[in-house]
Design a protein that fits this description.
Chain lengths: 113, 113
Amino acid sequence: DGGITQSPKYLFRKEGQNVTLSCEQNLNHDAMYWYRQDPGQGLRLIYYSQIVNDFQKGDIAEGYSVSREKKESFPLTVTSAQKNPTAFYLCASGFRATNEKLFFGSGTQLSVL
Amino acid sequence: GENVEQHPSTLSVQEGDSAVIKCTYSDSASNYFPWYKQELGKRPQLIIDIRSNVGEKKDQRIAVTLNKTAKHFSLHITETQPEDSAVYFCAACYSGSARQLTFGSGTQLTVLP
């Protein structure tokens, strides 16, 4: 199903390596979000962007970076500074400044080799 | 900031019975309370949401109730079916502000045939 697409579905990171997760949406949403999901835990906000060329840190931004050069795209880079990167990463989009009715991507499972 | 607690973490019910999942929130300014359903291996999807000016909302077999005084809200699923088996997340925020959604830790609902 379309709307918001994440790639790849599975990703492996070597020690000291930066990896980038892709998120693209064609819903014409201004706002985009990155969440981290660990087993038995809720969704924790990493970064969010309400508009192009602007983004804000969420609750667990350390070791991650983002960019928002286009409305449709919000890539997440997991840097080598993130010591525990193994998790399921979810991208979402929605209407600006409401946090309502978020649409989620199908996720990327990141594992460390 | 907002803190959302969700109970129980796991719930098993017989097909046809009702299921209730409860959440409490800490920030009295929160006014938007969505529920997301995540089936195994799939993306979270919004199933119902409620705003603080409403005490109850129903959509077929699903209902959400909100008690602003006690700062808790609940998801009720009646006549459960096997396809209701999933992880359910509650969330809360002050919609329309810079504050972002805070999610509960999730409830794994299993409907036994």
